Amino acid sequence: MPSRTAPCRRCLASLQSWKGGQLVICQDDDSGSTKCTRCRRLNKTCVVPIGPLKARATALAQALATANGGHTDAVKAAQTAVKKAIQGQKNAAALPAHKASDAEKLAATEREERQLIAQERLVDAVEKVGNTLAALLEAYEGVHANILNPPSPSSLGELDDEAVAEAGPAGENV
Fold first, then answer.
1. Boundaries of every domain in the chain
2. pTM for the whole structure
3. Measured at the alpha carbon of residue 163, what is the angle toward residues 158 and 167, in degrees to the nearest 5?
4. For 104, how many CA atoms within 13 A lie in the half-sphere containing its CB?
5. Which of 2, 77, 129, 139 has its CA 20 to 30 A from that of 120?
6. Could you write out the DSSP letters of every residue in 40-103?
């Protein structure tokens, strides 16, 4: 009889409170029913966990399998995770519908506020980058003004005869 990857809720309740001794193994029944052996023997419904609880139940079963019958830190951590998941489900089920909707509205409002704050921070960062780029461009233009705006030939004026005589004929190195 193969053991299940995720124990049923009844077996999981035993596994989460296990401290040592005989270990409950949730395994399929050989009779062809959908119940595990323990639930069939007790004539109880066999409910397989779903969602996050199933993932934590699988992790607990793996931790117990690798612990070789010892109550290791990994087993304790997995048991705690299962207990928290079950308690979270109980708290959610116990919360009245109107309070649940109020909590959902509050959570949605908080998400919207966080998104607005993030957008404002993004706008501020973009403005800061824009100001930095403008200052950088201004500094670049100041340093390279003669390259960016070369003087026009008319503003240079005509060379006087002494400068031409000092330079020598064209093509000669002085």
1. 9-94, 99-164
2. 0.50
3. 120
4. 8
5. 139
6. HHHT-------THHHHHHHHHHHHHHHHTT---HHHHHHHHHHHHHHHHHHHHHHS-HHHHHHH
Q: What is the pLDDT of residues 11-36, one digit of tens each?
A: 999 888 888 888 888 888 777 788 89
Which residue's structure tokens are 């026009």?
A: 152
- CB atoms < 10 A from the CB of 82, how many? 24
Residues 33-48 have pLDDT tens digits of 888 989 988 999 999 8
Query: Within 10 Å of residue 58's Cβ, how many Cβ atoms?
Result: 16
- Measured CA to CA, the distance from residue 132 to residue 134 in angstroms comes to 5
The neighbouring-strand residues paired with 115 are none
CA 110/CA 104 separation, integer angstroms: 10
> Of the candidates 28, 24, 30, which has an alpha carbon nearest to the alpha carbon of residue 12?
24
